[in-house]
Amino acid sequence: MAPMGRPREFDAAKALDKALDVFWRHGYEGASISELTQAMGISPPSLYAAFGNKEKLFRAALDRYAEVRRQLWAELMQAPTARAMMEGLFERVIQFYAQEGNPNCCMLVKGTLTSGDCGQVIADHMSAKRAESEAMLLERFRKAKDEGELPVETDPADLAGYFMTVLDGLSIRAAAGAGREELQKIAYLAMRGWPA
Amino acid sequence: MAPMGRPREFDAAKALDKALDVFWRHGYEGASISELTQAMGISPPSLYAAFGNKEKLFRAALDRYAEVRRQLWAELMQAPTARAMMEGLFERVIQFYAQEGNPNCCMLVKGTLTSGDCGQVIADHMSAKRAESEAMLLERFRKAKDEGELPVETDPADLAGYFMTVLDGLSIRAAAGAGREELQKIAYLAMRGWPA
DNA sequence: AGACTTATATAACGACTGCTATAAAAATAC
DNA sequence: GTATTTTTATAGCAGTCGTTATATAAGTCT
Predict the structure, then answer these.
(1) What stretch of H or E contains A46?
(2) What is the Cα A91 distance to its own chain's centre?
(3) I need a surface site. Which of A11, A164, A172, B58 has the fewest CB within 10 A?
(4) Dihedral of alpha carbons A154, A160, A161, A165, sign
């Protein structure tokens, strides 16, 4: 059943993906409404009718980003060993960052550093999404410890924090212009910290 | 001999340090002229007469930041072994980030992610400063390799890149709200990647 | 058909941005 | 003293920010 009134002429999901791309590349404050509307192919009133305001649009875009990321990570988590999972995760992340045309950083990293002044709401939202990703690593490491892949003296939480930190660092380095081989060498060294 | 004209009523060096603090916390675009002038205790015309414009002021503040950082690092580089140096560097950086009231991130990291749209000039300036720091690590690692502290199969450049990446990652994590103990555990794990 | 409801584009709002013209103040030069 | 030079604060420039009032277009409901 079609709703009353004039039907909207754009696909809200596709428009959200376009907005995500703009936020991803420029951050919250760096993305202007005019740039967003232009990328989304709609006019400001349509944006505000569909998404509320800039902050709500950003949160919706962030949710979308986190969902896509969660799905990708969920697949990678199924590698036979935690070590293979981590290597695969590095490989996948580096491939993305080094790909021409892609945003060469993690949106959560960029957002953490750029949305400090945009109100606590966005910062909290960002922290929650970061925690989700780290929780996936933590769970996988716990399982690996239970299965004997990791030594009993290993703290899965510390290990998850360490690899999240390296992943974040890679994001910075990619944003600074590092190429694929360079990032791969760093990931290789980071894996040397794997518990023996 | 005092110059002609009316003498300036503020200390340019102190004003620059105040500007550095504002840029450090809010990034280039996030720092407004009004906030800068307020922090520096001067009015806009004084700012423009003394520093040119916002971009030049930022570059001056960045130079100041890099100089202070370089001096601190130079001291730390003199530790008896490269490993002790690296541990000391982690300790010092973490202490700073975790200190209440301090900017809880590296200005070069924040700048790399926030000044992408502010013109290539600033981005290049940022890259140069990043390279300076990494070059100090590289030189110290080369020396360690020459002295036999590092195995012959170790690539000092890769190692420098790895530790820079971890340091950058710690900066992100501190900005995300991580405390001192958490950062220390990560640094401890990062040191496990030290060549055996 | 006409009433109602929703989406659309245009244009504009007040607030802020980086920056500067103007004029007064404070020093030296002659 | 008067002229010159530089710094100062006030006020305002044109432009952009996020957001919205207005009016028109495009649908469903009765």
Answers:
(1) helix A44-51
(2) 15
(3) A11
(4) positive
